[in-house]
């Protein structure tokens, strides 16, 4: 007789399996071979097992060579690697959930419209402005829109010498032409003359401005690989934020999806597969995690309409004033404001701004285009949201008029002002042009710009640059449209300027 009692402790390696156990294993193997499982894998995992001392008894699935701890998707993937056709002792393709046709139709066209942007840059040499620096290459993302055009970031093609585009799944790079660069909004518009590039690609459609907690998916070609990458998150904040590349403040979306180097210019999709923004920057800080920023559709549409209307990019207009909040009740009373009156006080006005002829310092701006301004400078945006009133100004185009209501000497006045772009004494960018300079007697004269300060003093130029230059950069205003701040950047040694060799970055009065 065969003793069928299970002994305590480790089973002897010389002991033979009982006939009953062998028959059970054969039956289980036959059932799997016939693809006649009584229960789904999840149900099999859910069945309770009796725990005993020593090594646990193998289940029927383990004796048949199936690991119940692995997920159905992982088991099916292993079978696909073994056979290539997904069949191992029977058809196990039912373990992989099928992808709905609606998802395929929604995702695939959106992915095909995302392209990889290759750019060769040749930046100007501000120390030797008659030369250029060594060229370098970069890669970023972009996407196809209507009219045989491609959108990407302005910093992706800044100081470009050559731009090429490659579609998803293609091995061909197509030469692209830059149509317009919007430095303030960090958007660039490209096109490709080769008809082959546009074959079989559907342009993306723009969606509405998303709400908080709406799901977004960022698609692009970031570092870490050569193929397309997809990250997902939600909209965590909507406000007027600082655009690093353009040194401007425009409407932006904050999301918690990962945005890395190379994602710049890639689209952000909503759950309907429509583009709701362009990824362009992220926050790198020890106290913050997963904070990325997206250029929303209102800014993108403004850029495109501006180009279509004028044939070139003219920029986003500004009001041209410095203002302060009126949250202090004593300050409001001193300015003659009533109990229910709200607004902001004008501190200074740009001398080059068109509204400098009608507005005056200490005027209280009550409303802009019929929208009342609060004491903290915000206006109603959407349900439960407020936003800085500069958003209303940025929705206008260069040359447009706006109605401004102000309080002056306890009297309410209304003016129609013409909006224009900002004229800074020290420009924030040179818009891809070479720096201006003049050489006489070995003295190199050049105009001060933010790129010049960054080139001479590094990224921390706001701390390392001379105080006089920083004071002009932060507080001074241009008196005329063509005014420039000029310095002697260096002195080229010659017999005529002996004794002046040590002059470096000295302001010309």
TrEMBL record:
Basic residues compositional bias: what residue ranges?
1-11
Q: Name one GO molecular function term.
A: serine-type endopeptidase activity
Which terms are listed as keywords in the entry? Hydrolase, Protease, Serine protease
Q: Where is this region: Disordered?
A: 1-77
Locate the Protease Do-like PDZ domain: which residues?
A: 426-508
UniProt keyword Transmembrane, yes or no: no
Start and end of every PDZ domain? 318-419
Query: Its GO biological process terms?
Result: proteolysis
Gene3D superfamilies, per database record: 2.30.42.10, 3.20.190.20, Trypsin-like serine proteases
InterPro entries reported for this sequence? DEGP_PDZ (IPR041517), DEGP_PDZ_sf (IPR046449), PDZ (IPR001478), PDZ_sf (IPR036034), Peptidase_S1_PA (IPR009003), Peptidase_S1_PA_chymotrypsin (IPR043504), Peptidase_S1C (IPR001940)
Family under the similarity heading: Belongs to the peptidase S1C family.
Q: What is this protein called?
A: Protease Do-like 9
Q: Which organism is it from?
A: Kalanchoe fedtschenkoi (Lavender scallops)
